[in-house]
Specification:
10 helices; six-stranded parallel β-sheet; alpha/beta; globular; three-stranded parallel β-sheet; TIM Barrel
Length: 267
């Protein structure tokens, strides 16, 4: 049986088709060949910004349970005091979430990583520095960013299996990196465009207006851009938790939603 990682991706198949057509068109009209090739390049660029696209590699962006369930995820942390405050709020509603952490923040707050685990939540790899332009860098740079975050978490006893690319941008270099490190890609299907907690006004209404069954919800656990907004952020997250109940949507661990583990603990 052919190894899954060695099979051709939609990007590769599309590339073969487009470039073959371009090569054939060259003998008819060279400009037509150039247009076809440029269209493929444009398609690749657009696909990189489609966080739910599996153009380059299999991407899990939502569940397929068919049940009234959603998963809650938080990116970019941990951060003090916001992550701890969110953990307390999640405990209040008996909700489990997944925290996609940056390596640099995990190093800064190792005790919060332990607290996340001890409270029954899960952790994912969100690169080391969370550079929003990470996917534009070289293969080696991308590999080191994912590897360093992975190594930081492993030293804390966490074997992460899921990776979420910063700002949801996917690079054609990412499949090779994740295959080498034994990771799979998880993005999201419902977000509020909060710009990393820089825009939290009406955060809850933006989420609740469009959330539906099997969604993976994206939020952030970094400190708000303005300190005075910390209380507002917690209020918005609590409104989301209450609103999901009102919509008869149950928050479950992401493992239950996607049917696979996102991490294991080293005993």
């Amino acid at each position: 049986m052919k190894n899954k990682s060695s099979s051709l991706s939609p990007a590769q198949i599309t590339g073969i088709v487009f470039l073959s057509v371009a090569a054939a068109a060259f003998f008819i009209n060279s400009w037509l060949a150039i247009v076809i090739a440029l269209f493929y390049i444009l398609l690749c660029v657009v696909a990189s910004f489609c966080y739910r696209s599996s153009f380059y590699l299999p991407v899990i962006s939502r569940g397929n349970t068919g049940k009234n369930m959603v998963a809650l995820t938080f990116d970019d942390g941990p951060d003090e005091p916001t992550t701890r405050q969110i953990l307390a709020l999640l405990d209040k509603y008996a909700v489990k979430a997944t925290f996609f952490v940056s390596g640099v923040n995990a190093l800064k707050y190792p005790e919060i990583i332990k607290e996340i685990i001890n409270r029954g939540h899960t952790i994912g790899n969100h690169s080391f520095h969370h550079n929003p332009f990470l996917m534009l860098g070289s293969y080696n740079y991308l590999y080191q960013e994912v590897l360093r975050a992975q190594e930081v978490l492993k030293k804390m006893g966490v074997n992460v299996l899921a990776f979420r690319p910063p700002v949801g941008i996917i690079s054609p270099k990412l499949p090779q990196v994740l295959n080498k490190l034994g990771l799979f890609c998880v993005t999201f299907s419902c977000r509020a465009g909060d710009a990393g907690n820089r825009n939290i006004k009406n955060l809850s209404s933006r989420i609740l207006k469009k959330v539906k069954a099997d969604d993976i919800i994206l939020l952030h656990d970094v400190n708000p851009h303005r300190e005075k907004n910390s209380a507002a952020l917690l209020t918005e997250i609590e409104k989301i938790l209450k609103g999901l109940v009102d919509k008869c949507l149950r928050v479950v661990p992401i493992t239950d939603l996607i049917g696979r583990d996102v991490m294991t603990i080293k005993r």
